[in-house]
Each structure stands twice: as C-alpha cells, then as structure tokens.
Amino acid sequence: MSGKGLFGRLDWLTVFLYAFLVLIGWVNIYSTTLSDPNASLFDFSTLYGKQLFFIGLAFAGIILVLFIETNFFERFASIFYIISMVLLLGLFVFGKTIAGATSWYDLGFFNLQPSELAKVATALALAKYLSDIQTDIKNRKHQMYALIIILLPALLILPQPDPGSSLIYFSLFFVLFREGFPLYYLGILLTMVVLFATTLMFGTVWVAIGLAILTTLIFIFKRKSTKIPILPLTGVITISILFSLSVGFVYENVFEQRHRDRFALWLSLEKDEKKLEEIRKTIGYNTYQSEKAIESGGFFGKGFLEGTRTKGDFVPEQHTDYIFSSVGEEWGFMGTVTVILLFSFFFLRLIYIAERQKNDFSRMFGYGVISILLIHYFINIGMVIGLLPTIGVPLPFFSYGGSGLIFFTMLLFIFLKLDSNRLKDGI
Questions:
Q1: Model confidence, pTM
Q2: Which residues pair with 105 in a beta bridge?
Q3: Contacts (Cβ under 8 Å, ≥6 apart) of 384
C-alpha cells in the first residue's frame, strides 16, 4: 500500500457518495428555481446557475485541500480558529443583514458566511487540543478549555441573531464524549434543554416546585441507598432554578419575535387561538406547505419538473432550507427513502473511516466532521417534516448556498486527506 499515490489512497466510496448527494441536490435546486425552460444551465444569473458555480468553487477547494501537506491542518489549526473568531467579531461592524440575521460579509459576487468557516476551524482546533492533551480529558482544566473552544463561536453567533447556526456547535460535544469526556456533562446538557422548554411552557415557579418535589422524593426513597450529599444537591437545585430564571430574559431579549413565534408554535405556548392561528399562517406556513408538498408526492412522486406545489411557489425558501420537500413531491416516498438511505450510508462510512484512524488528531477531527454534518441532517429533515421548529439549518450538500457547500466540502475532504495519509506509510 505504501506505493499508492494520493488518488489511490483516497476513499473513493465516500467521494462517490458526496458527488451523488451534490448532484441530486443540484437537480432539485434546478427544479425548484427554473422559470425559463429555454435558459442555459450555465446562466449564472439564475439560482441553479449560481449553485453550479459554487459546485465549481467547491471542486477547486477539493483540489487545493488534497494537495496541501497533511500536517498543515494540524499545525495551523489554532491559527484558523483565531482567524474565524476575528471574522465572527467583525460581523458586528461590517456584517450584511439577510433575513433578519447579520451573518454575512458582502464580497460583491459572493456573500461569505463566516460561521461556516468557523465550523471547520472549530473542529480542527478541538481535535488539535484534544490530541495534544492525549488521555488527560478528565482533568477539569482541560475540560474547561475544550468547552471554551466549542462555546466561544456559538456565543458570538447567537446575538447575530442566528440561533440555528449557534446550535450546531453543540454537536461537537459528541467528539468529547467519544474521547472519554465524563457522561454527566451530557446529563447537564440535556437538563438545560429540558429546563428551557419546561420553563417556557409552565414558568419558573412551577419548575421550582417540580424540582423541590423531585428533591424531596430523592431524599425519601434514595438517600440511604445512594448516600446523596446534601450540599452538592442543594447547589444543583439552586443553579437549575437560576438557569430557569434566566430563560425568560434570554427568550425576550436574545431571540427575535420570529424565533419566539417558532417556539410558541412548536411548544404550543400561545393560548389565544386567534394568535396561534395567525402564527400558523405566518411562521408555521413554511412547514405546513412543506408537509403538504411531501404528502402530495405519494409513493412514486409526480415526476421531474412536475411538482405543482413546487412550480406554484407554495413552499417559501424551497431551494434552501426546504429543499427536501421538492424530493418528496417530485420523487415521492421512494425518492425520500433513497436520499435518507444515501445519507445513512454516507454517515456510517464516515464512522468506519474515523474508527480506522491510527492518528488521534485524524480520528477526533473525523468525529467532528460527522457531528457537524449529522446534526445539520437531523435538524433539517426534522424541520421540513414538522418535528422540529424552523431554525434555518441547511441540508448538507443539498441546499442552495455557496458558503455552506464550500465549507461542508472542505470539512469532508480535509478528513479524507487525513485518512489518505493513514495509508501513506503502509499502515
């Protein structure tokens, strides 16, 4: 194996799956945005033409990544991270606002979204830090530094406001758990999510009462068998109540009205039926139309360019966040299942590649790639079929957009480049 060149060492099955997903995504972007059947495929004034241009840029990025020395990514991981944080900070001064979020730099021919670059840089920086400390992840100081690497970009993105992109960074916690991070942090994370939702639904007073009842039951039935210390438990309850108290402030002052409306719809927070119906017609309109488009496709779909809801522009943003609904309408149940199976096989292959790495940095970065792409996939599909609120998360390799496609591609091919180096010396 040591005699193989770069292209001989590349995992071509993953490359094929990537190319196939990009192709299917572009076909659906073409279908959802085509207005003139006689227009050229290379008409860059159209959205499908622009996406073709972005695919070309992504391909150029692949060539660049593959011909860079492998240790370059590990050596300069910290520099990439610092640059991406500076770019995120710069948005507060030079950012361009699109759809209510100041998340882009206007470069004239191209809108750059630095949060996409920051995903690549954060995955690299986290892998670099964890590989440097080796097995010392149970050290509290190292745990804190690892958490800062993940949380810093999330906190810079949240006030843009772009809570959807901010949420993506929490997926990198799975890298920490894979490398031996204490599982009680996962419990803390899940508790925060539950506290946030229950506070919005019932209020801090009822949350405090619930915590008090739970604590009492623990002391009555479990104290002798588990020997729970009073002081730490009291501290946990106090912190939980303080967190619950902060939920109202964050909800009213960090989230915009459109975000609050989405939570109101998802958690049924609005008790006034007239207001709730108004929210359904505005914020919930996209999801409702998306569900109807998928439902109308039936088992085999209506056929390419035959989607009546797609052609009628019933689904807003169908070429971006709701691209999966066009698959459902035009290709039906069989089409959606095919796409889901392709993504599933793609993720399983990435897990297999990550597990075969001999180098700690490569394995950790691989799991960072998997975490970021997987959470995008789950949130987007859940959003399109109505299981999750609309938070503006694109479907990797499918949704229209240059920044997303280029940096998703860079994430993947940096990992494939690292994997190819595994075979360089016949390992």
A1: 0.83
A2: 112
A3: 287, 290, 294, 321, 322, 324, 325
